[in-house]
Amino acid sequence: MSKASERNKKRKKAKEVLKHISDNPAEYLVIHYSCESFFNLPQGNTPRITSIAVRYVRNAQTHSFSIHKMAELKGILPTQINQHYNQLEKDMLDEYFTFVGSHLEYKWIHINMRNINFGFEAINHRYRVLGGTPVQINDNLKIDLARLFVDTYGKQYSPHPRMESLYKLNKVTMASFLNGEEEANAFNTGDYVALHQSTLRKVDNMHNVISLSVEGDLKTKSNIFQVYGISPAGIFYAAKDNWIVAIILFLFASAIAAFIGIGVTKYISPTNDKEKLTHQL
User: What is the reported pTM?
Assistant: First the structure.
């Protein structure tokens, strides 16, 4: 299979997923979480979880699970959270996995939650460390939004950090949004409320760009050649998917045909005139 054909296959599948999200929003959840920085951890340790947010695509209602909310429920002051962190984290994850257990038929949209460092497995492992038994989400029900957009719009759809740049390009609000370095600083200073607000903002922004994409209104940095590739097959797929490209190609082909026709006429005409003169003589 050619590179253009493989790219077209991935793009077609990604567009089908986006269409299914649009047509069946009640089947989907958006999830994101915040955690301790991956750096400067003892070797082999997984980052501690600080907050998790899950949003229903159907109605934008969001369920959140956080360290500081558990501390408030137990009457623990914010300044004392670190002294009770493991138990508060365990209680938070108890709530989260109860939610997971009642939503196993849903499809979970995430960003790069793919491994033990950051992902569903990282949450599962952290829960096991704290003595819990995680509820497993079927891998076939997990949809990585970042990869979905790469397959749809090409690798150049947004500069790194891709999602943050995409939000800004589409003028999605960045209020309360923390980048990786800011999240690490917030964790180190014990600002768990800021981490929770950032997690809520990120699931909201993810939902916003999903909506823009399924409506065909998402702005990206990709041009048509970056999406389809520069090859005859790529141009064919571009024309097939985009009526503007099809018209441009038709006009271009018509112009070339007309130019060739004019050249052929000029080449033949003198010969015909010469034959006519010879016949007359």
Answer: 0.82
